Design the sequence.
């Protein structure tokens, strides 16, 4: 299948049960910065994205709490080593549980460079970028809404880390990066502010 901008790539349906308990994931979760050469599967990637912002009810409620259910977060994936997914920068489509290709080509090294010299970030099979549109929340809550957005990022990031642990994978939350460079990589509107990077892969 040709890789064209805005092309949609469906993700396997997420699972809502598994053999790895929440308590075990909490006990085993660690911040990991070295990843093996094993590729991620599309199913694993889809499960991680669903854990961060997946829809769990017909009303549109999601896996992570959001002040006023306003959902200011947007997720991107910088993929390089994912089975049956061409390298590129993708935008997670929450409603359809799919990925929209924004830019073709492996840009993981660029993310590593943007992470203020943390080049190991670019060695992970995929990197999840969490961005936010503050205005969705501040329109209701004023400037205090920015605090609520940051709380939501923490919820979503922890969900990714715990889900990764349950899948036998690992991650770490990165906050040190050039906002300008990450914005340019994701190719999204200026109103979206990148707030966290989460490289994901099999622990080395």
Sequence:
């Amino acid at each position: 299948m040709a890789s064209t901008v805005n092309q949609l790539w469906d993700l396997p349906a997420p699972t809502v049960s598994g053999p790895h308990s929440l308590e075990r994931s909490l006990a085993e979760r660690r911040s990991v910065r070295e990843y093996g050469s094993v590729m991620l599967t599309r199913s694993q990637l889809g499960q991680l994205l669903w854990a961060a912002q997946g829809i769990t009810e017909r009303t549109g409620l999601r896996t992570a709490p959001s002040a006023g259910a306003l959902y200011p977060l947007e997720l991107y994936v910088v993929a390089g080593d994912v089975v049956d997914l061409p390298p590129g920068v993708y935008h997670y489509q929450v409603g359809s549980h799919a990925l929209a290709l924004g830019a073709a080509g492996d840009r993981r090294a660029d993310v590593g460079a943007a992470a203020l010299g943390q080049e190991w970030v670019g060695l992970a099979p995929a990197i999840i970028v969490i961005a936010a549109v503050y205005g969705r929340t501040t329109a209701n809550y004023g400037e205090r809404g920015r605090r609520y957005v940051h709380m939501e990022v923490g919820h979503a990031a922890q969900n990714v880390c715990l889900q990764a642990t349950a899948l036998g994978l690992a991650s770490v939350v990165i906050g040190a990066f050039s906002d300008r460079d990450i914005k340019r990589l994701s190719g999204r509107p200026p109103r979206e502010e990148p707030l966290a990077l989460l490289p994901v892969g099999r622990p080395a």
About this structure: The longest strand covers residues 192-201. The chain has one domain: 30-201. The CA atoms of residues 117 and 156 lie 25 Å apart. The chain has a mean pLDDT of 95.
